[in-house]
Automatic annotation (TrEMBL):
Zn(2+) 1 binds at H61, H63, K148, D313. Its EC number is 3.5.2.5. It comes from the Bacteria. GO terms for biological process: allantoin catabolic process; purine nucleobase catabolic process. Its cofactor is Zn(2+). This is Allantoinase. The gene is allB.
Length: 454
């Protein structure tokens, strides 16, 4: 008879294909059995009757800002928030930390900081900026998820936007290294000219900011990035797409055979430009929030499969950077990494009948496949890492400030009624969050994509 470390009994398992009541056994940090009624013995058992057993969420886009700007967030506070929300892996963006991750040395600094304080597993994005092309190989060697470039101003002086030549040559190099390029796709020309004109004319309110970043700026940049990716044979990922037409451009490119994908964020799916006007700085982001109609188009793309992924773009900053009479000068970035799964359960499953299996794909399964971490990550399957979140769908609560584990307890979702309680979160079989509190010491591991150079 088999002997397991842990059996999770009678939960409703959210597998890639369906939801099914079964037992799940874990040994040595891996899922080793999935059966209606497991007969083996175990050191520990969890009764998960009436609970959902989800694959651990993978958040492909956060800014934890450590080292150097830990007072903005940091791996300890950031990963506590993730674990509280059911997220078991994240990919940290190369910018807002100081130094930004642009070479082997800065990669190692960040890897060490993350390893020391992270409750959950992590991947690291490297940066693609003017002047660091020669460093891309050493970053790939160390295991970056891919290379992140900004097509518009990043808001951070030490992370310059990639001009066309940098993007073109960087994509060619990324293709040689077998790594994906992710872009923040907004036209620098359009956004900076519109922002300058508005501010020169003294138009510095929230509406003025919104008008300075039209959907056209996103579409133009996506189109250019897609064109460059096609020319260079580079795999491309468009981060935080805010518009239905943006998603369509990516879907059309994929239909033509290009290796292109995109993500959107919970805020584009749950907040609108009207909310930005009432909430103010806490809801400022780039691209900005859009109309309710645009939000509807994003949901439609989620249902039809052309929008396969959701990531939070958690990008916090201290309070003083979130207050300015000139809205253009307010830090752009929304704090949301603790609420990803619950927002999808509330606005997706509950409100729109989004299947639980699709939620598991959007925020775990697809992410792991796209960034070459499957089959170890992303799904409840035999042999996979035992990254699991237990959710009680019978519960709901109003999001309160005190419940946030962020360094700065701010969120545009405060006061929202969220469906589902995160009962516990397991990373490789270890319970890292339980009863509303972190339940383990930091033990996060660096995740490296498995793909080899082409
Ligand atoms: N420097 C940032 O963190 N920027 C982020 N800020 C947003 N989206 O408002 C981003 O992902 O572009
Ligand atoms: Zn961005
Ligand atoms: Zn970002």
């Amino acid at each position: 008879m088999s002997k397991y470390d842990l059996i999770i009994r009678r939960g409703i398992l959210v597998t890639p294909h369906d939801t099914v009541q079964a037992d799940l056994a874990i040994s040595d940090g891996h899922i080793v059995a999935l059966e209606p009624e497991l007969s083996g013995t175990c050191k520990e058992e969890i009764d998960a009757r009436e609970l959902l057993v989800f694959p651990g969420i993978i958040d492909a886009h956060v800014h934890f800002n450590e080292p150097g700007r830990t007072h903005w967030e940091g791996f300890q506070s950031g990963t506590r928030a993730l674990a509280a929300g059911g997220t078991t892996s994240f990919f940290d963006m190369p910018l807002n930390s100081s130094p930004p991750v642009l070479d082997a040395k800065s990669f190692e600094l960040k890897r060490k900081a993350a390893q020391a304080s992270s409750l959950v597993d992590f991947g690291l994005w490297g940066g693609l900026v003017p002047g660091n092309l020669a460093k891309m190989a050493e970053l790939a060697e160390r295991g970056v998820i891919g290379f992140k470039a900004f097509m518009s101003n990043s808001g951070i002086d030490d992370f310059a936007a990639a001009d066309d030549l940098t993007l073109y040559e960087g994509m060619a190099q990324a293709a040689r290294l077998g790594r994906i390029v992710a872009v923040h796709a907004e036209s620098e020309q359009l956004t900076s000219a519109l922002a300058r004109r508005a501010q020169t004319q003294g138009r510095t309110g929230i509406r003025d900011y919104l008008n300075s970043r039209p959907i056209l700026a996103e579409l133009e940049a996506i189109q250019r990035a897609v064109l460059f990716a096609g020319e260079t044979g580079c795999a491309l990922h468009i981060v935080h797409v805010s518009s239905g037409r943006g998603v369509s451009l990516v879907a059309e490119a994929r239909a033509r055979g290009l290796d292109v994908s995109c993500e959107t964020c919970p805020h584009y799916l749950t907040l609108t430009e009207d909310d930005m006007e009432t909430l103010g700085a806490v809801a400022k982001c780039a691209p900005p929030l859009r109309s309710a109609q645009e939000q509807g188009a994003l949901w439609q793309h989620i249902f039809d499969g052309s929008l396969p992924m959701v990531a939070t773009d958690h990008s916090p900053a201290p309070a003083e950077m979130k207050t300015d009479s000139n809205f253009f000068r307010v830090w752009g970035g929304i704090s949301g990494c603790q609420s990803l799964l619950q927002l999808l359960l509330t606005e997706g499953y509950e409100r729109r009948n989004l299947p639980l299996t699709l939620i598991a794909s959007l925020a775990a399964g697809y992410v792991a496949r796209r960034f070459d971490l499957a089959p170890a990550k992303g799904s409840l399957a035999i042999g996979a890492d035992a990254d699991i979140v237990l959710v009680d769908l019978r519960q709901r609560h109003t999001l309160q400030k005190q419940a946030l584990f962020y360094r700065h307890q701010r969120s545009p979702y405060l006061g929202r009624s969220l469906r589902g309680a995160i009962v516990s979160t397991l990373v490789r079989g270890i319970t890292v969050f339980q009863d509303g509190q972190p339940a383990a010491n930091p033990q996060g591991k660096l995740l490296k994509p498995s793909s080899l150079p082409a």
